[in-house]
Write a structure and sequence with these properties.
By secondary structure, this protein is an alpha+beta fold. The protein has one domain (12-169): 2-Layer Sandwich (Alpha-D-Glucose-1,6-Bisphosphate, Chain A, domain 4). The protein has a seven-stranded antiparallel β-sheet with strand order 1-9-8-5-4-3-2. The chain has a two-stranded antiparallel sheet with strand order 6-7. The protein is 25% helix and 37% strand.
């Protein structure tokens, strides 16, 4: 699968996986809040709330909950929706393309990282090719995201997505 935007190795993180699930189900997992809540962060963390307004300028809202019950809300802006192909959102804006408040080193967890995520999916004989291309404004932001466990965390969540969707079709 070709990235629609060239990868800048100093600013971007990329995760590619092949899922043994049809594209239509992967799309549902990405775009239906009740499904997204079940896989979107590595267990034992969870998502207690999710709102998706699937249109450019729409809301991408999640509340992540740690094992102690602490909650971390995150509001982003959906930039692009191409059914069963690509979903793009950013933390640098909120609903209706309004600028988000600037991030701060004092923000908790990953709220201090500005990013744009492009999730691309494509049918392959085995199921779905899944690519997460996550772009950052600075090399420091990209490095911080990687050090927080991007590869392991996003890899775990994609595995959780695949397992959930295989249960859905079983």
């Amino acid at each position: 699968m070709t990235n629609i935007i060239p990868v800048d190795t100093k600013l971007d993180l990329v995760l590619k996986r092949e899922l043994n699930v049809p594209v239509s189900l992967v799309w549902r997992g990405l775009t239906e809040p009740e499904l997204l809540k079940q896989w979107f962060c590595p267990k034992p963390w969870g998502v207690s709330d999710c709102r998706l307004d699937l249109r450019p300028g729409g809301e991408f809202y999640t509340v992540m909950r740690d094992p102690d019950g602490n909650e971390f809300p995150s509001t982003g802006c959906i930039l692009e929706v191409i059914s069963e192909k690509r979903l793009t959102w950013t933390s640098t804006m909120v609903t209706d393309f309004r600028p988000a408040k600037p991030v701060s080193a004092d923000d908790k967890e990953c709220a201090n990282i500005s990013m744009t995520a492009i999730i691309s999916i494509e049918a392959i004989p085995e199921g779905t090719a899944y690519t997460a291309h996550v772009m950052h404004a600075t090399p420091e932001q990209s490095k911080l995201h990687e050090e927080m466990g991007f590869s392991e965390g996003w890899g775990t969540t994609v595995k959780q997505l695949e397992e959930l969707l295989n249960q859905e079709i079983a």
